[in-house]
Design a protein that fits this description.
63% of the residues lie in helices and 8% in strands. By secondary structure, it is an alpha/beta fold. It has a 7-stranded mixed sheet with strand order 2-3-4-1-5-6-8, sandwiched between helices. A two-stranded antiparallel sheet has the order 7-9. The mean pLDDT is 82.
Length: 633
């Protein structure tokens, strides 16, 4: 079966093309030995089935983050039969640099010239046949989101050949490149790299290509070339000039007379003041729509599962053990669908819409300087903002981040943001019994803790966060099909990862109640509960809260032996309520969130994050216990 790799720079429409080719038949997978994810599917090339791989976006064959590294490794693999390089026709000068590097791989190559309609809107008219003649590879104009040119592209893939031409630099530059190339070939140092491409990258200072040459007889040739070509700057300049020359030969630019809608929107959305106001209004609208609209749907779903529970109780009253297990399964499924359908599905759809329209990169640009203080980039604000709704989609959005260090920091910090479930505890306990001023104070404390934690993690975690080369794409109107497919891929992860853990956790906790183990658990945790100044009887409540945070409030009065929530002040003081809420906000994430963290950053990082949140919650509970018991705020 032929394997086709889709390669392109970020925001070139690569994933849209993939959806046109593979559609619903796609699935997500990780590269061997890496947490970086890619998508693969199948399509027909003529009468034959071919595998299509949507590789992570990369600006060049020099990698600066894990995703780009895995893309380059995949391209070197012998399993790739045809490379389809997707170009953004509206930014052809920049896009074609990657094409020039891909031609050096000497593999069958087809260029998909995407977004031709957008180029025309910008006044750019490209002669695809002339571009094909200059590059020596088949060039197919397409508009992926509308399915235009897809049939021609499939025909081109079927007959794809290796490039007929190579990137030729000036005579003086070629002299140094070829001298180093011959040395690399003679000593067999290139490995997977084509010798000439390795020579160019080594001269440009790319470490993975320089290292094999440093301790070889080629070191002298490398040093000579780097000195003569100013550490590769001359090569880069000539490549830029070549791209500009190609553009001038194949494109005609006609001046646009009126100010574009994109310019008008950016003057508002990227403004130093109005940009923040717009961002607040947009996300407030999303959260308002999702969570106010989701409540009746959640109540409906929970109502259905409550009726199922009642039926099971009647049918299996004679066998309480079987009833407990089955109810655990039903409650787990109910909790999962109570999150997925009313909140997760519409939220991920709207986030996908913002991403495809082109707004998310603009948020990253707007907030980049603020996030740098925590070792992150502007794009990390998306998981944080998402976290106020639900921690699961918040963690899932960390996949848009480039470096592993950023993903781990963002996953940890996003897990600290009070989700809607923890908001229930804040408002239902502190807000109702102590006062809403103290509830607002808790949110302020949370923001301060997140910022300090980010600064500490920035220092503690190894590695560096690469400077953000953030591409601001043009505004685009995505198709419903593309949005639905994108949303399904994200919801599918939740269904297959979080739901089994929710069900398993629900069964375990139901059995704890069935066997009356809650008393034993409370006894085990009694010293810890005394340490943070809380009654030992509510230890089991905190354990149930790991399944679903709302349970910490719903079960609190039961664990205290009260008949209703309104009687809590009879047993807990205001100080204890405040400390209990502080602990609930920061301690171990719920099971669904832990499953999402494992999916995005791996098991080891999940264990560290879980342990870290518990330690943080304990320290904060102790601090506020001392403060509040000394002098109540």
């Amino acid at each position: 079966m032929k394997t086709i790799a889709l390669v392109g720079q970020p925001n070139c429409g690569k994933s849209t093309l993939f959806n046109q080719l593979a559609g619903y038949k796609s699935l997500s997978a990780n590269f061997p030995g890496a947490t970086v994810e890619y998508t693969k599917g199948q399509t027909y090339i003529g009468e034959e089935i071919a595998e299509v791989i949507d590789l992570p976006g990369t600006y060049s064959l020099s990698w600066y983050d894990d995703a780009e590294k895995e893309t380059v490794r995949a391209l070197f693999s012998e399993h790739i039969d045809v490379i389809v390089n997707i170009l953004d026709a509206s930014t052809l000068v920049r896009s074609i640099e990657l094409t020039i590097e891909l031609m050096s791989l000497e593999k069958p190559l087809v260029v998909a010239l995407n977004m031709m309609d957008e180029a025309v809107r910008k006044g750019i008219y490209i002669n695809a046949k002339k571009l094909e003649d200059i590059l020596g590879v088949k060039v197919v104009p397409i508009v992926a989101k509308k399915g235009k040119g897809i049939k021609d592209l499939l025909e081109a893939i079927k007959t794809a050949k290796k490039p007929l031409k190579r990137c030729v630099y000036s005579k003086e530059v070629e002299k140094y490149i070829n001298k180093l190339k011959e040395c690399i070939e003679k000593n067999g140092l290139s490995g997977e790299w084509p010798p000439k491409l390795m020579a160019i990258k080594a001269i440009e200072g790319f470490e993975p290509c320089m290292e094999p040459l440093e301790n070889s007889t080629c070191k002298a040739s490398l040093n000579e070339a780097r000195y003569a070509l100013r550490d590769g700057l001359v090569i880069v300049q000539e490549r830029h000039a070549l791209c500009m020359d190609i553009f001038e030969k194949v494109a005609v630019v006609k001046k646009k007379e009126k100010k574009s809608l994109e310019t008008i929107l950016d003057s508002i959305l990227l403004h130093s003041l109005f940009g923040y106001i717009s961002m607040f209004l947009i996300f407030f609208s999303i959260f308002y729509a999702v969570f106010h609209g989701g409540v009746p749907i959640e109540n409906l779903i929970i109502g259905i599962f409550d009726k199922i529970d009642a039926s099971l109780t009647s049918a299996l009253a004679h066998n309480k053990l079987i009833l407990a297990i089955i109810r655990g399964v039903v409650d787990g499924v109910g909790a999962a669908f109570g999150i997925a359908f009313p909140y997760l599905l519409p939220f991920l759809f709207l986030i996908s819409l913002l991403e495809d329209v082109g707004y998310l990169p603009r948020i990253g640009f707007l907030l980049d300087s603020t996030m740098h203080k925590m070792g992150l980039h502007g794009t990390s604000i998306i998981p944080f903002v998402s976290g106020y709704g639900c921690s699961v989609p918040a963690i899932m959005t960390t996949r848009i981040l480039k470096s592993r260090k950023e993903k781990i920091i963002s996953a940890f910090l996003a897990s600290l943001v009070p989700c809607s479930a923890r908001t229930t505890v804040i408002m239902g306990l502190v807000g109702y019994f102590i006062g809403y001023g103290y509830a607002i104070l808790l949110y302020g404390i949370n923001i301060i803790v997140i910022m300090i934690s980010g600064m500490i993690l920035k220092k503690l975690l190894p590695g560096i966060s690469p400077e953000m080369a953030l591409d601001i794409p043009p505004y685009r109107l995505p198709t419903i099909k593309t949005l639905l497919l994108k949303t399904w891929h994200k919801v599918k992860d939740f269904i297959f990862l979080a739901v089994p853990m929710l069900i398993a956790g629900s069964v375990v906790l139901t059995l704890i109640t069935y066997y009356n183990l809650d008393g034993i658990i409370n006894g085990v945790f009694k010293p810890f509960m005394a340490l943070i100044g809380l009654p030992s009887s509510i230890a089991v409540v905190l354990i149930f809260g790991i399944l679903k945070k709302e349970l910490t409030l719903l079960m609190l009065y039961q664990a205290l032996g009260l008949s209703s929530l309104s009687q809590i002040p009879k047993v807990l003081t205001h100080e204890q309520m405040f400390v209990f809420t502080i602990f609930v906000i920061f301690y171990i994430p719920c099971i669904a969130t832990m499953a999402a963290i494992k999916k995005e950053v791996g098991l080891k990082a999940t264990i560290y994050i879980t342990a870290g949140t518990f330690v943080l919650a304990t320290v904060l509970a102790l601090i506020f216990k001392v403060l509040l018991y000394s002098v109540w705020i």
